[in-house]
Amino acid sequence: MPYEPLKISTEKPVLSWADHDLGSAEIQMAKNVASLPFVYKHVALMPDVHLGKGALVGSVIATEDAVIPAAVGVDIGCFTGDTLVPLVDGKSYPIQQLAKEKKSVYIYACTETGRIVASEAIARKTRKNAPLIKIILDNGEEIKCTPDHQFMLRDGSYLEACNLQPGTSLMPFYSKQDKDGYTLIQQNYSGRWQKVTEIIANSGVNQKGANLIQTNTIKSTKMLHNHRKYEHGYNHKVVEVIRLYVTEDVYCLTVPEYANFALSAGVFVHNCGMAAIKTPYKADQLEGKLKQIRSEIEATIPVGFEQNKEADKTVTNWQNWRNFKDLHKGVQKLESKALKQMGSLGGGNHFIEVCLDTEEQIWLMLHSGSRHIGNKLAQCHIGTAKELAKLANLSLPDPDLAYFVAGTDEFAAYWRDLQWAQNYARFNRDVMMKRFKQIIDKHLAGGKPTQPLLSVNCHHNYAEKELHFGKELYVTRKGAVRAREEDYGIIPGSMGAKSYIVKGKGNHDSYCSCAHGAGRLMSRNKAKKQFTLDDLIEQTKGVECRKDRGVLDEIPGAYKPIEKVINQQSDLVEIVATLKQVLCVKG
Asked: pTM of the predicted model, to two decimals?
């Protein structure tokens, strides 16, 4: 459905994709935001819009040279067209060429254990005239990309390009040729050199994939340089990060199974991509197992105010902990708590779900964020913004719309801490999804690991610097998901309702955004007063979940019908899969 402008008098218009009239409080909140002098062009409201703090939940706000901390609830970047990507046919190709051909290709990806595998991927153009930075590696290679693209670190975690520092150690991709001219790849987990043909065979590539690869062309026409440290002194470390004062069209690969790929420069990077994965399992494999699976999830992943008793190695190895000392002084006593909360769900509307699509395929889905540390960082900076507003005698329509101006120390400190919190949120989901998947693999495959058929990971409360209408802006999506052309996203319904995997259409009127869920129809207190335990049991029939008064405020009746929300954004996204929950774990 196309948007409709709200009939209000403000400096900047408000475009709404909602199918209902906004209440007086909601209209006032929209007017408050649209009246701010640094808001660009217009404010966009998604179909699930409802009251929030300072700004409506479900609003997308583009601003020039300012950002509002209370309106923020990351983005994955891309590479210039000349960036070389090695394929398993033994040759390297410019990513722009791969995008123009619009065909599936087989690339090198790295698993969580450091094993290099062959995986199917598709290249595409992702942004026009994007801002760029240049990463210089110790092997002399240079990589031009957007500042937000995530690079895989040596421990398997990710860090955005703009946050890389000289000396940062990246996950290496070592390649050479044997005496017969065949390509060999060094496995990072073992150090063993392995023929590409063996890697392909061990990656479970089907016959269609084998035909795509055309193994008779594995002999390389150009030898890939071998960057082994003991031969050349290289160790795939960052030497320098340089801001470039130019813009270019940029490209990326979608790698559904592993969410990363190798560059010919010799490193691994994240692919363009709440969290959800499509598994190879079918519905009948869950027969009689849901209660036991739910019990094990609740025993393995802390929910509500609970946290892990001890942080495991995956968590302690996250390289962003080294930057904790640079965060706001108000959170410096929370490092131990943040460590133990990494890999925990939280409460409220956060959830872990097993779902079925219309083909009876099993999906795993979870919704969580940056836990207490993210909330505390936000409170600290919102407090600072309010203090500055008072000192400057700013006349704001709402104190929660206090803002930071670009170029100030306060803005820089907030932006640094925001990026850290967003990275924490993403890694928190990764840790939980890994544990969640291990439980499912245990019950449905005897513990044998399986590869996802599709992976989706998207933020829905965040701010990022983006290019829209030919201008570089700060885009805040408060309860909204980025939906550029071909972006995958997740729009979940309430427990017991449907959820949707979607693909963006790149609608610039919405700043390439879509809804992040059904949106609340009533407050938590009102839901507790209006509904009974019997209502909860009836509305969650067929779902293995809690059915007690502790989750009554999350009853499906407290949310808008998800089908209506989806129908209101046909110009923003297309549906990839329709899911129905069969198991739900709430905080």
From this structure: 0.69
